[in-house]
Amino acid sequence: MPGDRIALGIIRKAHGVRGEASVEAWSDSPERFTDLRAVTLVSPDEEQTREATIDSVRIHAGRALVKFSGIESPEDVQKLQNWTIEIPEADARKLDADEYFLHDLVGLTLIDAEGRNRGKVVEVEETAGGLLLVIDGPKGRFDVPFAAEICTKVDLDAKTIDVRLPVGIEDL
């Protein structure tokens, strides 16, 4: 994804017969889609993009049901399954002090209580159990849950995350 766009969610499947898309929001608020009109749809391999206009949004079972202009059938939506919905980073909402965009975490260095560098975040994965930080550390790659009891302080300016890592996590 180019650095000038951020992904807000992913099209999971068609909903109904009128071309609505069931969208998994990548934020704590699927209502965010109600504020949008012009978006960019990006293919899973990031090779294709498509400008789109949101006609309407309604919230159902924790997902945003999005109706795009010109997409009129479930078959049209299925062609866009797993495409992300992105906006220019400049249009992103302002975050509170304890909020972060997932892409902001990539590149941060984990520092433990003794001040040791434990590795750098190379990717953020969303799993059923929550967010995992993929770390490139001195012993190789390992995953760290992005949880308050482990990641105790995020400092975007210093590009660090203070951590209390569980014993042996780097060896898994």
How would you describe this structure in keywords?
Elongation Factor Tu (Ef-tu), domain 3; 172 residues; SH3 type barrels; 6-stranded antiparallel barrel; 2 helices; elongated; 5% helix
Describe the structure.
- The chain is mainly β and 172 residues long.
- The chain has two domains: 5-91, Elongation Factor Tu (Ef-tu), domain 3, CATH 2.40.30.60; 102-171, PRC-barrel domain (SH3 type barrels), CATH 2.30.30.240.
- 5% of the residues lie in helices and 48% in strands.
- The chain is built from two helices and twelve strands.
- It has a six-stranded antiparallel beta barrel with strand order 1-2-5-4-3-6. The protein has a six-stranded mixed beta sheet with strand order 10-9-8-7-12-11.
- A hairpin with a 2-residue loop joins strand 8 and strand 9 (130-137).
Question: TL;DR?
Answer:
The protein is mostly beta strands. It is 5% helix and 48% strand.
Task: Compile the SSE list and pairings.
Blueprint (H helix, E strand, L loop, with lengths): L4 E11 L4 E6 L12 E5 L6 E12 L2 E6 L5 H5 L5 E5 L13 H4 L3 E3 L5 E11 L2 E8 L2 E6 L5 E5 L4 E4 L9
Parallel strand pairs: 7-12
Antiparallel strand pairs: 1-2, 1-6, 2-5, 3-4, 3-6, 4-5, 7-8, 8-9, 9-10, 11-12
